[in-house]
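In response to reviewer comment 3 from the previous cycle, which asked for concrete evidence that the modeling workflow produces usable outputs, we include below a single protein chain processed end to end. The sequence was submitted unchanged, and the resulting C-alpha coordinates are shown without manual editing.
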Amino acid sequence: MPETKVNPVFDRAGLAQRLGQAVDAAGGPARILRDAGVTSSTYSRYLNGETEASAEKLGRIAEVTGVSLDWLVLDRGAPIFEAGAPPAIPLGPDMAQIPPLRIGEAAEREIAGERIAFPRALLRRLGTEIDALEFLRARGDSMRPTIEDGAIVLIDRSQRDIIGDAVYLVSLDDGPLIRRVRRNVDGAITLISDNRACYEPERLERADAERLCVHGRIRWTESLL
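The workflow returned the following C-alpha coordinates.
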Protein backbone atom coordinates (compact mmCIF):
# COMPACT_ATOMS: atom_id res chain seq x y z
CA MET A 1 0.00 0.00 0.00
CA PRO A 2 1.53 3.36 -1.00
CA GLU A 3 2.46 5.78 1.76
CA THR A 4 0.01 8.62 2.27
CA LYS A 5 1.70 11.99 2.29
CA VAL A 6 0.17 14.86 4.24
CA ASN A 7 1.04 18.38 3.22
CA PRO A 8 1.47 20.84 6.11
CA VAL A 9 -1.12 23.59 6.38
CA PHE A 10 0.35 26.94 5.44
CA ASP A 11 -0.37 29.59 8.06
CA ARG A 12 -1.52 32.43 5.79
CA ALA A 13 -2.95 34.43 8.70
CA GLY A 14 0.34 34.19 10.57
CA LEU A 15 2.24 35.36 7.52
CA ALA A 16 -0.05 38.39 7.21
CA GLN A 17 0.50 39.25 10.88
CA ARG A 18 4.29 39.00 10.59
CA LEU A 19 4.22 41.00 7.38
CA GLY A 20 2.40 43.84 9.13
CA GLN A 21 4.79 43.71 12.09
CA ALA A 22 7.85 43.87 9.84
CA VAL A 23 6.56 46.81 7.81
CA ASP A 24 5.40 48.78 10.87
CA ALA A 25 8.65 48.15 12.77
CA ALA A 26 10.79 49.30 9.83
CA GLY A 27 9.07 52.64 9.36
CA GLY A 28 5.53 52.04 8.14
CA PRO A 29 3.93 51.31 4.76
CA ALA A 30 4.42 54.71 3.12
CA ARG A 31 8.17 54.34 2.62
CA ILE A 32 8.69 50.60 2.91
CA LEU A 33 6.16 49.64 0.23
CA ARG A 34 7.59 52.14 -2.21
CA ASP A 35 11.06 50.68 -1.79
CA ALA A 36 9.70 47.13 -2.08
CA GLY A 37 7.66 47.92 -5.21
CA VAL A 38 4.31 47.04 -3.63
CA THR A 39 1.24 49.27 -3.94
CA SER A 40 -0.81 50.10 -0.85
CA SER A 41 -3.87 48.34 -2.28
CA THR A 42 -1.88 45.17 -2.94
CA TYR A 43 -0.41 45.36 0.56
CA SER A 44 -3.92 45.62 2.02
CA ARG A 45 -4.95 42.51 0.10
CA TYR A 46 -1.89 40.71 1.50
CA LEU A 47 -2.92 41.61 5.06
CA ASN A 48 -6.55 40.62 4.48
CA GLY A 49 -5.61 37.30 2.91
CA GLU A 50 -7.24 38.21 -0.40
CA THR A 51 -4.00 37.91 -2.39
CA GLU A 52 -1.01 35.66 -1.83
CA ALA A 53 2.29 37.49 -2.16
CA SER A 54 4.77 36.03 -4.60
CA ALA A 55 8.12 34.72 -3.41
CA GLU A 56 9.79 37.64 -5.19
CA LYS A 57 7.65 40.23 -3.37
CA LEU A 58 8.13 38.55 0.02
CA GLY A 59 11.87 38.44 -0.56
CA ARG A 60 11.92 42.11 -1.47
CA ILE A 61 9.86 43.10 1.58
CA ALA A 62 12.15 41.06 3.83
CA GLU A 63 15.19 42.76 2.30
CA VAL A 64 13.78 46.27 2.68
CA THR A 65 12.50 45.78 6.24
CA GLY A 66 15.63 43.89 7.31
CA VAL A 67 13.86 40.81 8.65
CA SER A 68 14.75 37.17 8.22
CA LEU A 69 12.86 35.64 5.28
CA ASP A 70 12.61 32.36 7.23
CA TRP A 71 10.82 34.21 10.02
CA LEU A 72 8.58 36.18 7.69
CA VAL A 73 7.35 33.20 5.66
CA LEU A 74 7.73 30.22 8.02
CA ASP A 75 7.85 31.81 11.50
CA ARG A 76 11.20 30.07 11.95
CA GLY A 77 13.74 31.64 14.30
CA ALA A 78 13.63 35.27 15.35
CA PRO A 79 12.85 38.35 13.21
CA ILE A 80 16.33 39.79 12.81
CA PHE A 81 16.65 43.44 11.86
CA GLU A 82 20.03 43.46 10.14
CA ALA A 83 22.65 46.19 10.24
CA GLY A 84 21.85 48.90 7.73
CA ALA A 85 18.12 48.20 7.76
CA PRO A 86 15.70 51.12 8.11
CA PRO A 87 15.59 52.42 11.71
CA ALA A 88 12.94 50.64 13.72
CA ILE A 89 10.02 52.35 15.41
CA PRO A 90 8.57 50.88 18.63
CA LEU A 91 7.08 47.45 17.99
CA GLY A 92 3.62 46.37 19.03
CA PRO A 93 2.91 45.31 22.62
CA ASP A 94 3.42 41.63 21.76
CA MET A 95 7.05 42.08 20.66
CA ALA A 96 10.22 43.02 22.56
CA GLN A 97 13.54 44.21 21.16
CA ILE A 98 16.58 42.34 22.46
CA PRO A 99 19.97 44.11 22.32
CA PRO A 100 23.22 42.40 21.28
CA LEU A 101 25.69 41.08 23.80
CA ARG A 102 28.45 43.51 24.68
CA ILE A 103 31.62 41.64 25.56
CA GLY A 104 34.82 42.82 23.93
CA GLU A 105 35.52 44.86 20.83
CA ALA A 106 35.45 41.88 18.45
CA ALA A 107 31.95 40.90 19.50
CA GLU A 108 30.75 44.48 19.14
CA ARG A 109 32.18 44.78 15.61
CA GLU A 110 30.58 41.49 14.59
CA ILE A 111 27.04 42.46 15.61
CA ALA A 112 27.21 46.24 15.35
CA GLY A 113 23.81 47.72 14.53
CA GLU A 114 21.97 44.40 14.66
CA ARG A 115 18.99 43.78 16.93
CA ILE A 116 16.20 41.25 17.14
CA ALA A 117 12.52 41.50 17.89
CA PHE A 118 11.18 38.65 19.96
CA PRO A 119 7.64 37.54 20.96
CA ARG A 120 6.95 38.49 24.58
CA ALA A 121 4.76 35.40 25.00
CA LEU A 122 7.75 33.12 24.39
CA LEU A 123 9.92 35.11 26.78
CA ARG A 124 7.27 34.73 29.47
CA ARG A 125 7.23 30.96 28.90
CA LEU A 126 11.01 30.94 29.34
CA GLY A 127 10.57 32.71 32.68
CA THR A 128 13.03 35.46 31.82
CA GLU A 129 13.10 39.19 32.50
CA ILE A 130 13.33 41.05 29.21
CA ASP A 131 15.70 43.70 30.57
CA ALA A 132 18.23 40.98 31.47
CA LEU A 133 18.37 39.43 27.98
CA GLU A 134 20.99 39.92 25.27
CA PHE A 135 21.69 37.88 22.16
CA LEU A 136 24.70 36.49 20.36
CA ARG A 137 25.40 34.39 17.27
CA ALA A 138 27.08 31.12 18.21
CA ARG A 139 30.30 30.23 16.39
CA GLY A 140 31.76 26.78 15.86
CA ASP A 141 30.51 23.22 16.28
CA SER A 142 31.42 22.55 19.91
CA MET A 143 27.80 22.63 21.15
CA ARG A 144 26.21 20.69 18.32
CA PRO A 145 23.53 19.37 18.13
CA THR A 146 22.14 21.59 20.90
CA ILE A 147 23.41 24.84 19.35
CA GLU A 148 24.36 25.04 15.68
CA ASP A 149 27.09 27.19 14.18
CA GLY A 150 25.60 30.61 13.38
CA ALA A 151 22.49 30.12 15.51
CA ILE A 152 21.12 32.98 17.57
CA VAL A 153 21.13 32.37 21.32
CA LEU A 154 19.50 34.38 24.09
CA ILE A 155 21.61 35.00 27.19
CA ASP A 156 20.04 35.83 30.54
CA ARG A 157 22.66 38.07 32.15
CA SER A 158 20.86 37.92 35.51
CA GLN A 159 21.51 34.17 35.89
CA ARG A 160 25.19 33.67 36.63
CA ASP A 161 25.01 31.09 39.41
CA ILE A 162 26.04 27.62 38.21
CA ILE A 163 23.10 25.29 38.69
CA GLY A 164 23.15 21.64 37.61
CA ASP A 165 24.85 21.40 34.21
CA ALA A 166 22.97 24.17 32.41
CA VAL A 167 24.50 25.94 29.41
CA TYR A 168 26.24 29.27 30.05
CA LEU A 169 28.33 31.89 28.30
CA VAL A 170 31.68 31.92 30.10
CA SER A 171 35.21 33.19 29.66
CA LEU A 172 38.54 32.56 31.33
CA ASP A 173 41.61 33.95 29.56
CA ASP A 174 40.40 33.86 25.97
CA GLY A 175 37.17 35.08 24.39
CA PRO A 176 33.71 34.00 25.55
CA LEU A 177 32.66 30.37 25.13
CA ILE A 178 29.30 28.64 25.25
CA ARG A 179 29.60 25.53 27.39
CA ARG A 180 27.64 23.26 29.66
CA VAL A 181 29.03 24.05 33.12
CA ARG A 182 29.14 21.63 36.03
CA ARG A 183 30.42 22.46 39.51
CA ASN A 184 32.18 19.54 41.20
CA VAL A 185 32.08 18.74 44.92
CA ASP A 186 35.83 19.40 45.26
CA GLY A 187 35.46 23.00 44.04
CA ALA A 188 36.61 22.31 40.50
CA ILE A 189 34.44 23.14 37.48
CA THR A 190 33.98 21.10 34.32
CA LEU A 191 33.25 22.77 30.98
CA ILE A 192 31.42 20.36 28.69
CA SER A 193 30.86 20.56 24.94
CA ASP A 194 27.76 18.75 23.71
CA ASN A 195 29.73 17.63 20.63
CA ARG A 196 31.59 15.08 22.74
CA ALA A 197 32.79 13.10 19.74
CA CYS A 198 35.12 16.00 18.90
CA TYR A 199 35.68 17.82 22.20
CA GLU A 200 36.74 16.40 25.55
CA PRO A 201 35.39 17.94 28.79
CA GLU A 202 37.74 20.54 30.28
CA ARG A 203 38.33 20.42 34.02
CA LEU A 204 39.24 23.64 35.82
CA GLU A 205 40.88 23.14 39.19
CA ARG A 206 39.86 25.39 42.06
CA ALA A 207 42.33 28.20 41.28
CA ASP A 208 41.22 28.44 37.65
CA ALA A 209 37.58 27.91 38.55
CA GLU A 210 37.68 30.98 40.75
CA ARG A 211 38.84 33.04 37.76
CA LEU A 212 36.07 31.77 35.49
CA CYS A 213 33.65 34.55 34.51
CA VAL A 214 30.06 33.48 33.97
CA HIS A 215 28.36 36.09 31.78
CA GLY A 216 24.89 34.53 31.79
CA ARG A 217 22.80 31.46 31.14
CA ILE A 218 21.67 30.42 27.66
CA ARG A 219 17.86 30.36 27.70
CA TRP A 220 16.94 29.84 24.03
CA THR A 221 18.59 28.92 20.77
CA GLU A 222 17.46 29.24 17.19
CA SER A 223 16.95 26.04 15.21
CA LEU A 224 18.58 26.11 11.78
CA LEU A 225 16.92 22.88 10.58
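The chain has two domains: 9-75, 93-225. We consider this sufficient to address the reviewer's concern, and the full set will be provided in the supplementary archive.
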